């Protein structure tokens, strides 16, 4: 992690926030308290991440974007970029694959972001949900792009649709954003239908964009509270059905999981 790049970025973001009368998030305030020049690299990273988490989609100068892009691309390269060849194919259906890892390091044509109805990230400093992670490592350009989409739409994003943006600094070329159902641990038939529609909408968007690979996160199973086992079954069944209904569309689908629990749920569904 390049400390010089981080210090420049944090200094810019702190001054930008002050100019707009914004309070610093705690991690940034902590780093700034003793002087950014003496802050540790880890403290600067937490400050940077928390600042971009709360930064509105303001225009950013070219120097900031170039520095940010260099930092984020370097971090992703250090973490190691995974390709489709690193994923595990289903022995019963080679169109389907499983991969456990950080979706922000996966070089698929598109990755799926589990968004909220605001569509511009979760805004919670240092919250480690997938929405926050994807926006952080894509860069501030992603929030700006989502804000433009929402301004043009004029209303919150409905459940079970899909919107496509560039991936910016991510290895994935595109991000497909979908809002899953909020089940709170007690899914209804409507929630089940909405979850299936999320998968279909993302696949439709991928095909319409002319892409041939997509990596799904576990939609709605985080704070939205859809039970993981049932969500996994719906995901695999819905994707299989869509692929069978579109035999002329070449598509590789990766189910990306982050936890050992989710991996154990998907393996038998994929015949692994």
TrEMBL record:
The keyword Zinc applies. Its cofactor is Zn(2+). Gene3D superfamilies: Leucine Aminopeptidase, subunit E, domain 1 (3.40.220.10). GO terms for molecular function: hydrolase activity, acting on glycosyl bonds; metal ion binding. The keyword Zinc applies. It catalyses: 4-O-(ADP-D-ribosyl)-L-aspartyl-[protein] + H2O = L-aspartyl-[protein] + ADP-D-ribose + H(+). InterPro entries: Macro_dom, Macro_dom-like. Keywords: Glycosidase, Hydrolase, Metal-binding, Zinc. It comes from the Bacteria. Residues 83-272 form the Macro domain. Belongs to the MacroD-type family. Zn-Macro subfamily. PANTHER family: ADP-RIBOSE 1''-PHOSPHATE PHOSPHATASE, GANGLIOSIDE INDUCED DIFFERENTIATION ASSOCIATED PROTEIN 2-RELATED. This is Protein-ADP-ribose hydrolase. It comes from Adlercreutzia rubneri. The lineage of its organism: Bacteria, Bacillati, Actinomycetota, Coriobacteriia, Eggerthellales.
């Amino acid at each position: 992690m390049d400390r010089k790049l981080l210090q420049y970025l944090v200094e810019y973001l702190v001054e930008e926030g002050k100019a707009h009368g914004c309070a610093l998030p705690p991690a940034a305030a902590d780093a700034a308290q003793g002087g950014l020049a003496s802050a540790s690299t880890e403290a600067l990273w937490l400050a940077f991440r928390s600042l971009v988490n709360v930064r509105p989609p303001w225009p950013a100068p070219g120097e900031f974007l170039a520095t940010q892009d260099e930092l984020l691309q370097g971090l992703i390269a250090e973490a190691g970029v995974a390709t489709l060849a690193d994923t595990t194919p289903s022995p019963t259906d080679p169109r389907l694959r499983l991969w456990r890892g950080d979706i922000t390091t996966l070089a698929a044509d598109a990755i799926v972001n589990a968004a909220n109805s605001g569509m511009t990230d979760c805004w919670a400093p240092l919250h480690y949900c997938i929405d926050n992670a994807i926006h952080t490592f894509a860069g501030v350009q992603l929030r700006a792009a989502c804000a433009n989409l929402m301004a043009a739409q004029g209303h919150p994003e409905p459940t079970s649709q899909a919107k496509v943006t560039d991936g910016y600094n991510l290895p994935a070329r595109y991000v497909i954003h979908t809002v899953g159902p909020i089940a709170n641990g007690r899914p209804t038939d409507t929630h089940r239908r909405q979850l299936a529609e999320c998968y279909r909408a993302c696949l439709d968007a991928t095909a319409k964009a002319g892409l041939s690979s997509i990596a799904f996160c576990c939609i709605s199973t985080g704070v939205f509270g859809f039970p993981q086992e049932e969500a996994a079954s719906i995901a695999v069944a819905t994707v299989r059905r869509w692929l069978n209904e579109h035999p002329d569309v070449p598509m590789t689908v990766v189910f990306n999981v982050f936890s050992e629990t989710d991996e154990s749920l998907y393996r038998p569904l994929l015949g692994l």
